What we know:
binds magnesium ion; Rossmann fold; alpha/beta; two-stranded antiparallel ribbon
Amino acid sequence: xxxxxxxxxxxxxxxxxxxxxxxxxxFTNSLHARYDVCEAFFTATVLKGxxxxxxxxxxxxxxLVSDFDGTMTRHDFYLLAIEHLIPRDCPxxxxxxxxxxxxxxxxxxxxxxxxxASEAGVLAVVDQMELDPRLPRALADxxxxxxxxxxxxxxxxxxxxxLLAQAGVSLEVFANPGEFIAGQGLRMSLPSDxxxxxxxxxxxxxxxxAHWLDQGCRVAFAGDGFPDADAARRVDDPLRFAxxxxxxxxxxxxxxxxxxxxxxxxxxxxxxxxxx
Length: 276
Ligand SMILES: [Mg+2]
């Protein structure tokens, strides 16, 4: 039974009552709900030291989901790790993965566990990944045009967040959580958030893309590897960006895409397309 104060008022759902009580906006159609979600995500992405642009609601529906290793950077961390940090007598975990005896996640986890270098030594190798130097400027330009950029990676958030912080930017990152423990290497685990967890690569990149598509957002995707293929297939042709193995895979499937060599070219393309 409704409390006395509600007598004569139209029926409100439990959620609507909660929003009314808390002063939160109550959205009555899916279009507004979609802006609500996209806006919340937009505000989670902040360029340090720069004022946030306040785009119109229509501008807030554009999300660029990007891979990290080999996409935002020139080199993959795991390849640099094998070259500089992994003991020479380490088993060939990558072969185990390619032959189906380990998952992608298990192979990376096993490699990272063998690292015995100091944290400073590992970070020196992380620096060799070469994050696109134009990234901060490109992110600011994209943000001004209403694009929100999120990172999805089958790698480890420990080095991703380090490199982004070094560049002075902070982005929402969906990657496998990890911590460096001296003497125990880089300890990587599966994401605790079950919504975007993949048992094989850790982070369900296609699930991240699907989540924003389901909210009605315009979603672009950029990647360079086979683990990016499912996510890339989900976006519209003009919003698909690829290089290296992913480009080869998409070509085989006769799916169209824009080829890029460095990440900021993606930003240039999206900004050109929005200004036309
Ligand atoms: Mg990659």
